[in-house]
Amino acid sequence: MSITPCRPKWRGTMTDRERFNRQMHYQSVDRSFNMEFGYWNENFTEWDIFVNNGIRNNGEADRFFSFDRIGNVGGCTWMHPAFESRVIEETESTRIILDGNGLFKEVPKDGHDTIPHYLKASIVTPEDWKREKELRFDRNHPARRVNVEALRKAHPPERTYPLGVHCGSMMGRIRDMLTFEGFAFAIYDYPEMLEDMVETACVLIEDFLDQVLGQVDFDYASGWEDICFKNGPICTLDFFHSVVVPRYRRIGRRLHRHGIDLWYTDCDGDVRPLLPGFLEAGINCLFPYEVNSCAHPVELLHEYGRDLRIMGGVDKMQLARGPEAIRAYLESLVPGVERGGYIPFCDHRCPPDVRPEYYLYYLDLKESMFGMQG
Question: What is the pTM assigned to this prediction?
């Protein structure tokens, strides 16, 4: 679909790729890299600026707002095939669904975005895991083979945008499969099963990386966890350091052998207890860095110095409060942007309670503060 941008791309003298790499490595840039993480599904039906211009998803929104381009490549690094999703039961207002992770969950019929009510998991005991591992985690499944030539063609060396390689998840996908509570209980009830799950995740990611590293010129690595909430991680630190960090370290060594020294993980909640382990293993950037459950990004950047980078960290709650609050918050981020290793954008998907006019004010102000001057 052809998208007509509503605003011009920020002016600049560098390519998006040059700008991203220099900004994240504390080198001088023409201006800040300009990106956003996206929007709730409701925004595409409730924001008039999207509805009136036919914008239906985050990819179209990126083009609509003329953001800098950033790419990412992933592979089949977890469950395959997934469980067959189906409706188990319906009430007047909800459906009980078996989802692709094998979870029985209750969701609203009207489809509005919310955290589902999880009822039970298909995998609870070591016997469950043994059965499903044989069915769904075959390292030699044809879907796990990467068409490297197609990747090279899609992302040639002379491209002008940064490209990342996705390094999957050591805990987040397991949490998706066991539920939050199931993961927490498994640490104590079935520690050997849980470690085998982490090892399985690591091996599948290593298999993928071994196919693509050295074949495509990547600028960064990415990951996804979401295993923290407002009071910290759902796992014990003993489990994290003894089981998870060594697997991160194995992945980090692969990345470093191929010159990739920037690795972010997407983990919401208060990640501070995990940061020493992340940094030890090579994960040196947080994304999209939720503020209210953690700390102001500049505070954390100051604490860890150049060992840490952050992408995100613009408090979505301040965006909902209007121009005065937006300006005050962006002004508080100036030291982080000037420091380098920090790209400001909304600290998760922008919710629909942010009024479109406030969001446009935010984009305008961000450009005037962090875009090319003169």
Answer: 0.95
